[in-house]
Amino acid sequence: MTQTTEQETQERAIEALMEKGVSYTVKRKGLLSYVFPQFKIKIAPPTLGVLYNISSAFGGIDIDEEKVEESPLSYGFALVEENAHRLSQALAAAILADKFLIKCIGGLVSRYIMWQLTPRDMFMLVVNILTMCGTADFINSIRLIKGVCLAEAKNRIE
């Protein structure tokens, strides 16, 4: 196989996975771990409404790179205190993927996530959510629409 066909095959495989969604198995903590040692999280590709909820949670996260370089440990703990709940809210919105469920039990799922997932698990889920969100595609479509609108406006003026 040539490199281009391998790359195309990989891209098709990634697209197929993103269309179906991704499932993760996570070890449970606490008393329920004795009865049910693992639980499964399924993240489906988000709709625009879910993307809105996720982006509003991620948008509230503010990281000052200068403070990170000055004192990474103390500022890191301050970031956890400020942003852990926002991150778990974004994950809960991605997992629930429904407006009604997010409104009704989003807070409960968010708190459950905070106490069940390790930082490594959260990082892995966030990276996959951001990949599935297709924010680059969304931004490019907005740029395309803006370009089309500007082109139409210039044609009308002429």
What is the residue-averaged pLDDT? 78
* Quaternary form: single chain
Largest beta-sheet characterization: 2 strands, antiparallel
What distance separates the N and C termini? Answer: 52 Å
Low-confidence stretches: none
Distinct helical segment count: 8
**N-to-C SSE string, H for helix and E for strand:** HEHEHHHHHH
The helix/strand class is: mainly alpha
CA gyration radius, whole angstroms:
20 Å
Query: Which geometry do the CA atoms define?
Result: globular
Beta-sheet strand percentage?
A: 5-15%
Number of domains: 1
How would you describe this structure to a colleague?
Helix content is 77%, strand content 8%. 15% of the residues are buried. It has one domain (21-157). The chain is globular. With 158 residues, it is mainly alpha-helical. The chain has a two-stranded antiparallel ribbon. It has helices at residues 3-20, 32-35, 48-59, 65-70, 72-96, 99-116, 119-133, 135-157, and strands at 22-27, 38-43. The model has no long low-confidence stretch (mean pLDDT 78). Helix 3 (48-59) packs antiparallel against helix 5 (72-96) and helix 5 (72-96) packs across helix 7.
Layout of secondary structure:
Elements (H helix, E strand, L loop, with lengths): L2 H18 L1 E6 L4 H4 L2 E6 L4 H12 L5 H6 L1 H25 L2 H18 L2 H15 L1 H23 L1
Antiparallel strand pairs: 1-2
